[in-house]
Amino acid sequence: MKVIVCGAGQVGFNIAKQLAAEHNDVTVIDQNAELIRKISDTLDVQGMTGHAAHPDVLERAGASDADMIIAVTQNDEVNMIACQVAHSLFNLPMKVARIRTQAYLQKQWLNMFSRDHLPIDVIISPEVEVGRAVLRRLAMPGAFEAAPFADDRVMLMGTLLEENCPVVNTPLRQLTELFPDLNIIIAGVVRDGKLFIPRGDDQLRVGDQAYFISAQENVRRALDIFGHEQAPARRVIILGAGNIGMFVARELERAKVQVRVKIIEYRKERAEAAADQLANTVVLHGDALDLEILREANIAEAETIIAVTDDDEVNILASVLAKQGGCQRAVALINNPGYGPLMRSLGIDVFIDPRATTVSKILQHVRRGRIRGLYSLYNGAAEVLEAEALETATVIGKPLNEAGIPRGIMIGAIVRDGKVIVPRGNTIIRTGDRVVILALAEMVKKVEQMFRVSLEYF
């Protein structure tokens, strides 16, 4: 596949890294010569300095015979025009754009992105994706990772196993006997910094990060069994009234369950605008690192603090202060992936990497075969994919234990006629099933082949 990536920032770099590792032909465009030099020296891609929306630049990047353009520069308008030029002048078939400004994404204007106007096939809004990720963590306390599949019928959950976890040191094959109503698949485990797919005789240990796949209705029960019996938060403090903070606050105001929300915003103008736009949220103007402001927000009674300012250090330090002040749980937005390993030692329960959420959304549209959903795990060490089984899929019509599924791939759930099936060795995948799979990075291509559409597709 030939792909043009516009923008060599964190998201562009990671998309290019992933695609190059899979032996795609990748060209990266950016106006910053230093970023292009870095990406060219680091990755097996072609780097090009220039304006991503200029026709001559796109022509030199090979737009006339490219399969996809992924526009993820820092400028929404550049991303949109790059897609327009790629469509109008080069008839490029797949156009993906990152758009941050929420005014463009209001329902009444979405027709603007149709093929007859401003043709963009896939719109990625990082703020909305991160906001949804925050809301999922709020709804599922005890989970550091949560991603929906199959129209929200199936969930991928990540949870940390602590001393109070009753299932540690128990072979996984015994869990069904001990908890017959559990109905989950433990698809992946991170131990000592490495992600692996466990076998039936493997045991979970204290300190493990366990990823399990479950029907939506079984998630709460599963988290309880893993030792996380916390109830969803009803008193929440949000730090930052930017796009993410405002999205979360609005959604919480619309929630059927009553949640008391307060926002702390450093910039006065933004705080005033937030107060005008939100009906049932208390907005405080002040510094999130000021203990007096945190006390005024009654941090000691808060169940969760959500730190989503545009400054990683503020998010980290404010979360630490809030936990010391009595807040039960901290969720922090962290843009710098280098800070990730520090979070647990600092007492931050959940950190959300907007780069990872954006990359996952884009990769969903890069994958071949009938891939309907995708979530990248543990810095790209594995992917969870939702695939539709068509007649050409190699896994249909035979029991899973006879289907030749290689190591490194775990079938986590099957959705058939709206019902979730927990797969066992004798389970048979049928045409039309939607299958949720965890695959180690090196096995993703194998999954694409297993669920291929037709030979001609490749």
Task: Describe this structure as you would to a colleague.
With 458 residues, the chain is of the alpha/beta class. The chain has four domains: 2-124, NAD(P)-binding Rossmann-like Domain (Rossmann fold, 3-Layer(aba) Sandwich); 130-225, 2-Layer Sandwich (Alpha-Beta Plaits), CATH 3.30.70; 239-357, NAD(P)-binding Rossmann-like Domain (Rossmann fold); 365-457, Alpha-Beta Plaits (2-Layer Sandwich). 28% of the residues lie in helices and 25% in strands. The chain contains 13 helices and 22 strands. The protein has helices spanning 10-21, 33-42, 55-60, 76-90, 126-139, 175-178, 219-225, 243-254, 268-277, 291-296, 312-324, 354-363, 444-450; strands at 2-6, 25-30, 46-49, 68-71, 94-98, 122-124, 145-149, 154-160, 184-191, 194-196, 209-215, 235-239, 260-265, 282-285, 304-307, 329-333, 350-352, 371-377, 382-388, 409-416, 419-421, 434-440. The strands form four sheets. The protein has a six-stranded parallel β-sheet with strand order 3-2-1-4-5-6, with helices on both faces. The chain has a six-stranded parallel β-sheet with strand order 14-13-12-15-16-17, with helices on both faces. Strands 7-8-11-9-10 form a five-stranded antiparallel β-sheet. Helix 1 (10-21) crosses helix 12 and helix 5 (126-139) crosses helix 8. The termini are close together. Residues 454-458 have low confidence and may be disordered.
The average pLDDT value, as a whole number, equals 91
Q: What portion of the residues fall into strands of 2 or more residues? A: 25-35%
Number of domains: 4
> What percent of the residues sit in helical stretches (DSSP H or I)?
25-40%
User: What is the CATH-assigned architecture of the largest domain?
Assistant: 3-Layer(aba) Sandwich
CATH topology of the largest domain: Rossmann fold
Please state the CA-atom Rg, rounded to the nearest Å.
Answer: 23 Å
* Cα distance spanning the termini: 10 Å
- Give me the side-by-side strand order of the main sheet: 3-2-1-4-5-6
Number of helices: 13
Which regions are unreliable across 5 or more consecutive residues at pLDDT < 50?
454-458
